[in-house]
Amino acid sequence: MSAPHVIAVDLGGTKLAAGLVDREGAVARRAVEPTDLSSEDALLAQLELVVGQLAADGFAALGVGVPSTIDQRTGRAVASVNIPLTEVDLRDRLRDRFGVPVMVENDANAAALAEHRLGAGRGSRHMVMLTLGTGVGGGLILDGRLYRGAAGAAGELGHITIDVDGPPCQGACPGRGHLESFVSGLAAEGLAARRAAERPHGDLGLALASGRPVDARLLVELAAEGAGDARDVLEHVGFHLGVGIASYVNVFNPEIVVVGGGFADAGDLVLAAARRVVAERALSPARDEVEIVEAELGADAGLVGSALVAFELLDEG
Question: What is the pTM of this model?
Answer without folding.
Answer: 0.90
